[in-house]
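Intended use. Records like the one below are meant for learning the mapping from a protein sequence to its folded structure. Do not use them to infer anything beyond what is encoded.
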Amino acid sequence: MARILRGEIRWADLNPVRGHEQAGERPVLVLSHDVFNERSGTVIAVALTSQEPCAGFPLTMEIRTVGLPKRLWVKIGQIRTLSTERVGRRLARASEEDLVQITDGLNEILG
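Structure written out for the chain above:
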């Protein structure tokens, strides 16, 4: 498999899940750094959804990356550590500005 890089939006298999976790085959945004992804065999990512959310920032944020098939929102509170075996093909790459804003949202949630 090709290297998985920070900022990439990729398909991932999020099953099995419990409770309110995002399920199924869906796009995720990789937040962890390239070296971590390569050496650990895992990535830290947030789920994306095409359902317009009720909650705003910092829980969700629309991502306006070129090349996405439709409008997508980052579910900042749905952060997951995934085996690289769950991560599939690349869809697009988020901007540095989006990554900074998402990280700021995580900092607000985590305090």
